[in-house]
Specification:
This protein has 279 residues and is mainly α. The chain has 8 helices and 5 strands; from the N terminus they run βββααααααβααβ.
């Protein structure tokens, strides 16, 4: 599997690992870590960056001439989450500093979630016309909602570690990523469009059927293949080897989320007491 992890921060309660192979880093708790403070900080590190990415995407796709107020609001959200991400980088995995950071991040997450929901409703009802599909706005809102739920759980000393929930959420997200990528590629990129569409279909099927097969987890192999595809796509976008409307930052964003899916699933599989392998 790709996406090599390195040590980032470690305490007696657990360890955070980091992957720095892309434009932005991605952080995960080690498979052995059960401490909710450590898990909570790892998610704050990721999600403050992810929310900054979401705000950057919305800024690009809200025409300032027609939607100046919304464009400026998205820009402000990006500035806010960039600052919060810098705070997260300076935070040690100890209960009090992590709780203070979480208390600062969650209200901003609630605010950007409400902003996404308003944009979605206004777009669906024809009150505004952005350059975003309603399905993209719904996608961004669902990601924010899950982050808030998990962060609240972590700060309460418990966090959901359920294989069904992880796959139900992330398989849909991965399928949607692949659909979005297919629609952002130049129509001449027939092979890449077909490959992306195949991944969309595969993860839509994973969402419906993902039973373990003895000591193997077939979903792990599917995610590993998707990470390889997204890493290749990031390089291809950066080096103009494929033609598309995809900014490198967006290609990197979806790569990082695939890594998060992989590691959430690996951790919950490890909790079963069986060393799971990819099918």
């Amino acid at each position: 599997m790709r996406a090599k992890m390195k040590p980032y921060k470690k305490t007696d309660a657990g360890e955070i690992l980091v992957n720095d192979e892309g434009i932005e880093k991605v952080w995960v708790p080690s498979q052995e870590t059960q401490d909710t403070t450590v898990i909570g900080l790892a998610e704050l590190l990721n999600e403050t960056q992810m929310m900054a990415d979401h705000a950057a995407i919305m800024t690009m796709l809200l025409p300032p001439e027609q939607l100046g107020e919304q464009h400026n609001q998205a820009k402000k959200f990006r500035e806010t989450f960039v600052k919060l991400h810098q705070r997260a980088l300076q935070t040690e995995p100890q209960p009090e500093p992590v709780r203070r950071l979480s208390d600062e991040v969650l209200p901003q997450a609630e605010a950007i979630h409400a902003f996404k929901e308003r944009l979605l409703q206004d777009q669906e009802n024809g009150r505004i016309h952005t350059l975003m599909w309603p399905s993209l706005l719904d996608h961004l809102a669902r990601e924010t909602e899950r982050f808030m739920d998990r962060q609240e759980q972590a700060m309460a000393g418990r966090i959901q570690q359920d294989r069904e929930e992880i796959i139900d959420f992330w398989a849909d997200i991965m399928s949607e990523h692949s659909d979005f990528i297919a629609h952002l590629l130049d129509p001449a990129e027939i092979e890449s469009i077909a490959q992306s569409s195949d991944f969309a279909d595969e993860f839509a099927a994973v969402s419906e059927e993902h039973e373990l097969q003895g000591k193997t987890d077939p979903v792990l192999g599917a995610i590993a293949d998707l990470i390889d595809f997204k890493e290749t796509a990031l390089t291809a976008v950066q080096e103009a080897e494929i033609q598309s409307m995809i900014p490198p930052e967006l290609a990197d964003h979806v790569r990082r989320e695939a890594i998060l899916f992989l590691h959430e699933l690996m951790r919950v599989d490890a909790m079963t007491g069986i060393q799971m392998e990819a099918a």
